[in-house]
Amino acid sequence: MTNTVPFAQLEIPETIAAGPGPGNTDARVLARYAGAGLADHMHPDVLRGMVECKEMLRAVMGTENTYTFGVAGTGWSGLDMMFSAVMPGDKVVMFVNGTFSGIDGLTVRMKAATAEELVENPLDPQAASVVIIDVPHGQSVTGEIVEQALAEHKPKWAAMAHWETGSGRVNDIEGFSAACEKHGAMGLVDAVSSLGVGDFRIDDYPGIHGWASCPQKGICCLPLTYAPVSFTDTYIETLQATGTRTFCHHPILEARHWGVIDGKDVEKGTYHRTHSAYAVSAFHEALRICLQQTIAQRASDYTFHEAALREAVEAMGCEVTSNMPSLVVLNLPEALAGREMELVQHCRAQNFGIWPTLSEPVQVRIGILNLLSEAAISDIVRRFGAALRELGGEVNQDHIDTVLQRHYGRALAAE
User: Is the pLDDT of residue 4 over 90?
Assistant: First the structure.
């Protein structure tokens, strides 16, 4: 057996991440990640950074919840923690209108399933205590839909994705919260795609007791750093009363790691979790950037630039079916219908990372996470238009350029 290395050093090229996420990580965040010293994870500066992250995250999320911190991992880590309060036999109503709320629904069914139900179908249990409310692809979950379901089923928990990136739809968070309050359900919200993009404060929605997001979308940090979560005291009290089958992502134990014990901030954490100084440094910088820009300004910028992209692709003959400010979901022109996957692969081969939908019907998704400039949107539009032409579509680039110039010219005129 030889000691030679069988593979060359891995080189990954620059890619425009123009999909639903991960987003384009800010260079300042990458610099903080790479620039962190080889510090012991208990170094005072690392611990100070964690305290400051906790405080900044509360400001970003708009909450007084003491139980607000980051879960090491991706958005799935945060969601797993939030859903950990759901115990076998708990009655849950889950609203599904796309791929990712559908996966949330599977998670809820796994959490709520009894031992017998898990044995019967371990990977797709049909928990009798869970009601899945299916809303057709391309439509939003409305307050009326939530109200009707909660009035009928009277669950302990109700769960919904705030923004469903599978179909690019924004769901009615105000109506969801109000219905939860009215019918005594504890709301749980997947905010993976909305946090850091939308202008909202979670404390404005008292019917919602658990929130989970991710590091790599609106916060524009790196995957596998920290997924933001926030829980009300009522959620924690419920968890204390019932316990949970989760150990790795236990909300109360993880809170102790972040220096939150018995609902109060303490000087330092008491639960051992070996974390990364690099991750703390990157997460800290991403939160600093969010607060420097302000959530309100970020939300305004996303809305403005999404409108430019929307106008441009519609001028190419595409039909936009989404209403999210960070993502455009579209049907191709009739002449190219059915070639969505071919188009996506063609773009990816040129380091232009757009995405298809992951469930039927197959559509194309173009995202603008951390691509908030006229130059960035124009580059995306030109690349997408060129890809359509290369597949035989008819796109007048001069006309599309005029559409963009008109959109951005209106902004200059308004100034």
Answer: no
Task: Count how many Cα atoms sit within 13 Å of the Cα of residue 307 in the half-sphere of its side chain.
Answer: 12
Q: Which two tokens stand for residue 167?
A: 């179909």
Largest CA distance in the chain: 71
- Check residue 33 and give its pLDDT: 93
pLDDT, tens digit (0-9, with 9 covering 90-100), for 256-287: 999 999 999 998 888 777 888 999 999 999 99
Distance of alpha carbon 263 from alpha carbon 69, whole angstroms: 13
Q: Are 177 and 205 in contact (CB under 8 A)?
A: yes
CA-CA distance, 414 to 357, in Å (whole number)?
Answer: 36
CA–CA gap between residue 382 and residue 388 (Å, rounded): 10
- What distance, in Å, lies between the first and last C-alpha atoms of the chain? 69
| Residue 190 exposed, middle or buried by CB count within 10 Å (0-12, 13-18, 19+) | buried
Structure tokens at 25: 């990580």
Which residue is listed with tokens 């750093």? 225
**pLDDT at position 414 over 60:** no
Higher pLDDT, 248 or 103: 103
Contact between 54 and 69 (Cβ < 8 Å): yes
